[in-house]
């Protein structure tokens, strides 16, 4: 019998939560950097050298929940399970179609998962990581057998296309990860081995990436203006202090990786891939340098898709899986960071 420790909660059982299927949905419509050269004062050279992004996808028709639903259908097909077998759907998004109902409920309806409970998590670009952690806890507690984690964001609908500091960075897309209970056979434990999640909400950090909702109090609007000297989210658009977030990310990502490795008594050399949130190639290169990694261990697709919040991790994981780059027994770290500021990692044996 294994004992898993999660802060002070001890879960005692012999169940693993294994990744049984993954999926993705990416819009067909591609915008290359050179399109931006015509609308704003920027260049392909600046965007590529500062971010690693060459193009991004923009969704023109689908709602966010439909994107997530499409990714979910692929994950279910890959896992070879029917929607009726899903016990729980956790959706992570920062661009939900509705404040309520939860996006997960809309996905549940879309895919016909008539035996599931559904709710959303809001942990920005670390959303998939937080959701996988929750899925793992539900499975290891014995309460749920099949948990679908869907992540999706329509970031291009909340950036100002006149703001060169923001609009070039983002895209749209969705991903899905299906986790299922599997009895531990006594061999090397498979599935989610450990997770580490944390939020750093000191000082001005919570206001460093924001998208104000319609229900924000007027007074709070004034306070935040004074707080950072910046008018936040005018007309429902996103605000980001890019430099502050960049510094936070470079500092934090290695800390998260170290923490999650420590939990399972492994070193970076035990890891096949670090599947990291695709926010900026320079952040990912800094991690490669810090660990002196073979760059192959840090797969990237930011050049093709840009940043679409929490779904970048699940889409990248799906692309590795569908190209047979991950073999049974490989150890993978999923790592994300974002608005909050939140950060987290899951370490998984395939
Ligand atoms: C946004 C980011 C790419 C900016 O890169 P940077 O090297 O820090 O650039 P700076 O913000 O210092 O800006 C440098 C100059 O480039 C300019 N610039 C910004 N965007 C530009 C663009 N698209 N094209 C051309 N110039 C641009 C700035 O206006 C500034 O000009 P100035 O010196 O005349 O004022 C980088 O800070 C970043 O990636 N941050 C993290 C963002 C992130 O990860 N967000 C999501 C977290 S989940």
What do these coordinates show?
The chain has a single domain (3-203, 238-349), classed as Peroxisomal Thiolase, Chain A, domain 1. It has 11 helices and 15 strands. It has helices at 33-39, 44-51, 64-79, 103-111, 127-140, 164-167, 218-228, 242-263, 281-291, 302-305, 311-322; strands at residues 2-6, 9-13, 15-25, 30-32, 55-57, 88-92, 117-121, 146-154, 172-183, 191-199, 209-210, 239-240, 273-276, 331-338, 342-349. It has a 5-stranded mixed β-sheet with strand order 3-9-8-6-7, sandwiched between helices. Strands 10-15-14-13 form a 4-stranded mixed β-sheet, with helices on both faces. It is globular. The chain starts with a strand and ends with a strand. The structure holds coenzyme A. The site of coenzyme A has 19 residues, from helix 2, helix 6 and helix 8.
Present the secondary structure layout.
Blueprint: E1 2-6, E2 9-13, E3 15-25, E4 30-32, H1 33-39, H2 44-51, E5 55-57, H3 64-79, E6 88-92, H4 103-111, E7 117-121, H5 127-140, E8 146-154, H6 164-167, E9 172-183, E10 191-199, E11 209-210, H7 218-228, E12 239-240, H8 242-263, E13 273-276, H9 281-291, H10 302-305, H11 311-322, E14 331-338, E15 342-349
Parallel strand pairs: 6-7, 6-8, 13-14
Antiparallel strand pairs: 1-2, 3-9, 4-5, 8-9, 10-15, 11-12, 14-15
Helix pairs in contact: 3-4, 8-9
The protein binds coenzyme A.
The site of coenzyme A has 19 residues, from α2, α6 and α8.
């Amino acid at each position: 019998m294994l004992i898993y420790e999660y802060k002070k909660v001890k879960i005692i059982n012999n169940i693993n939560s294994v990744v049984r299927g993954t999926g993705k949905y990416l819009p067909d419509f591609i915008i290359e950097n050179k399109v931006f050269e015509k609308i704003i004062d920027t260049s392909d050279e600046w965007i590529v050298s500062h971010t690693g992004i060459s193009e991004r996808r923009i969704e023109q028709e689908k709602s966010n929940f439909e994107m997530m639903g499409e990714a979910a259908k692929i994950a279910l097909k890959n896992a070879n399970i029917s929607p009726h077998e899903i016990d729980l759907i956790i959706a992570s998004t920062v661009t939900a179609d509705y404040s309520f109902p939860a996006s997960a409920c809309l996905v549940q309806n879309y895919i016909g998962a008539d035996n599931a409970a559904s709710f959303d998590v809001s942990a920005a670009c670390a959303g998939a990581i937080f959701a996988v952690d929750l899925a793992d806890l539900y499975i290891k507690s014995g309460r749920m057998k099949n948990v679908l984690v869907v992540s999706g964001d329509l970031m291009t609908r909340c950036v100002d296309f006149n703001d060169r500091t923001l609009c070039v960075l983002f895209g749209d897309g969705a991903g899905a990860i299906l986790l299922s209970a599997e009895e531990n056979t006594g061999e090397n434990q498979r599935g989610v081995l450990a997770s580490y999640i944390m939020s750093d909400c000191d000082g001005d950090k919570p206001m460093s990436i924001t998208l104000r909702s319609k229900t924000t109090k007027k007074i709070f609007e004034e306070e935040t203006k004074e707080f950072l000297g910046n008018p936040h989210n005018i007309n429902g658009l996103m605000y980001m202090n890019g430099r502050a977030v960049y510094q936070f990310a470079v500092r934090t990502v290695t800390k998260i990786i170290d923490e999650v490795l420590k939990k399972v008594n492994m070193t970076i050399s035990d890891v096949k891939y670090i599947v990291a949130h695709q926010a900026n190639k320079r952040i990912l290169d800094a991690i490669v340098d810090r660990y002196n990694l073979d760059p192959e261990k840090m797969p990237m697709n930011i050049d093709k898709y840009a940043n679409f919040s929490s779904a970048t991790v699940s889409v990248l994981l799906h692309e590795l899986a569908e190209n047979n780059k991950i073999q049974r027994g490989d150890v993978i770290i999923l790592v994300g960071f974002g608005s909050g500021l939140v950060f987290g990692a899951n370490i998984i044996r395939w």
